[in-house]
Amino acid sequence: MKASRQPRPYIGLLLLFLLLPITASSQTKAEREYRIKAADTPPAAQEIVHTLLPSQKVRWYREEGLDSSSFEAKSRWQGQPISIEFSQTGELEDVELQISWQELPQATRVTFKQYLSQNYQRHKLIKVQRHYPQAELLLRLLVDDSSAVCRLGSKYGCPPARCAVLLAQAR
């Protein structure tokens, strides 16, 4: 008669311990982002984005986390992706501008590479962003430049009627 095989409980434990480092090292993001219409965002946020990116196509998103939610405008500025984040009331919270790896100073790139190589066997840098937390607003005024050699007023600057709203928002 053949002896029956008994289950080996330690095999399951061994697999658990082998797989645990994989799940422990992965990052989880407890937030949700979804597309919304501009009409569903605070008017103050729309005003800032329209002034900063007057002729750009802007995609609006709602971002909901565990403790907070915000609005985010995504577009392009000088050919690079830009993200502008606002609070529920339309207050400017954060600006992120995507840049290329080569735009970082050489010393910064070397430091990043050394850190990643020393701490991770495999790594991949997906994107680099300039981050402006608690960003400040630079307001360029539209002035009468009819006598200027190179007239930039029609292309750059905020009309005086809109300045009060933007300055109030910047406080």
Structural commentary:
It is a single chain. This protein is flat. The longest helix has 17 residues, at 9-25. It has helices at 9-25, 43-52, 106-119, 160-170, and strands spanning 31-36, 59-65, 69-77, 80-86, 92-99, 128-133. Residues 22-26 have low confidence and may be disordered. Strands 1-2-3-4-5-6 form a six-stranded antiparallel sheet, with no helix packed on it. It has 171 residues and is an alpha+beta fold.
Percent strand: 25-35%
Principal-axis shape equals flat
- Reading side by side through the largest sheet, how are the strands ordered? 1-2-3-4-5-6
Radius of gyration equals: 25 Å
Mean pLDDT equals 75
Key attributes of the depicted protein:
about 170 residues; six-stranded antiparallel beta sheet; single chain; 6 strands
Q: What's this, in brief?
A:
This protein is α+β, with helices and mostly antiparallel strands. It contains four helices and six strands.
Topology:
Blueprint (H helix, E strand, L loop, with lengths): L8 H17 L5 E6 L6 H10 L6 E7 L3 E9 L2 E7 L5 E8 L6 H14 L8 E6 L26 H11 L1
Antiparallel strand pairs: 1-2, 2-3, 3-4, 4-5, 5-6
